[in-house]
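JOB MANIFEST
job_type = single_chain_structure
chain_count = 1
residues = 277
[input]
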Amino acid sequence: MAIDTNRIMKTGLELAGWKKMPADSAVHVRGNKINKVLIAIDVGTAELMLARYLGCDAVIAHHPIGIAHINFYKVLDRHVDLMMENGVPRKIARDAVKRLKDRVDTRTHSDIYSHTVGVAKALGMPLVNIHQPCDEYMRQVILQAITSGRTEYVSDIIKSVSKIPEFRQAATRVQVRLGSTKRRAGRWALVVAAGTNGGYNIAKAYLQHGVSTVIYLHVEYGELVKMKEDRLDGNLVVLGHLAGDSIGLNGLAERLEDLGVETVRIGILRGTSRAVK
């Protein structure tokens, strides 16, 4: 059964249990009669041409492109909600997130954001990017894995996440970048599906307000150096970018296949079928 680009976006939102499209996702080039799609984490000219060569009717990117790339900083406010749920005072949470938003907004303001979308329009190739909804699905899968196992020690959390098929297949391992696997996990916070990792300021806010173990998908080296120089007391677990993103895109691909759409997954670690309860 053929679908259109609006149905693709709706499928992504359903994956997360959401109704509203976030600012980091968009239908960039509309299309209908879609029976076969190429799905990739990052999409540029090469992926669009590959999709044409493979006979795909549309392309789905994960990471923001076009206007979604420029508006990406807007979804970072979700960090405030996650921090407050874990006991961080509102003012401290908002101040930490403002610094992150300012940095991201300043960086993306200088980017050439129109190229990939322009190529898709020239090719007549429907193009969608779905970021935060797929990440939210990923968050739910990882959260299930952690809460279904022991969480007494940091090593327990690592063991649970490492059992997820995408993490099992990854060339990277779940790592402790701050603290130790032998430490007690204490109160822990899974800090994903908020646009990007919170870096130094957000980790510091968690660790200074009752959270002993912060779990990021990835972290920049410079931000990690600040944490160590500041001697933050706690644990930082870094899961792995590709494995995490693959969970969300596999979930999306499976939903589309249920609708009768053929999917071509590029650069994605394959996992097993799952249903988030």
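[summary]
The longest strand covers residues 36-40.
The chain has twelve helices and nine strands.
exit_status = 0
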